[in-house]
Amino acid sequence: MPQKSRLKLPPIDLDKETIGERIIRLRKEKGLSQNELAKKMGLIQELISAYELNKRKLTAEMVARFAKALEVSCDIIIGYKINGKKKFKLNLRLMKRLHRIEYLTEYKQKKIISVIDSLLRDAESKEK
Fold it and tell me: Can you name the residues that pair with 77 across neighbouring β-strands?
């Protein structure tokens, strides 16, 4: 078991979400089950569950493996905020709709994008 540091280190700006909670969120955003993520990483589902429940601590290698499997940076996995900027969180419902739009003809895509642009302009003008 690693020794606890006695150094007085300055705080770093980490997300309030635990690493396990972040892995769950990222996995669900990708539409993966624990089993699917485990297969993608060459692990068993029980290990994914243990990491998600914070029962196992991630090694640097496992951070890299999760990042690769979930197609995000290691910074995202550990919750490090770069320059204190708010991280963009993907909305799974929105992403599913965008995915459906990708399979439409170019003509239909342009019509939908035109409607979305109009609605966004309207919503943004009401916010001001």
Answer: none
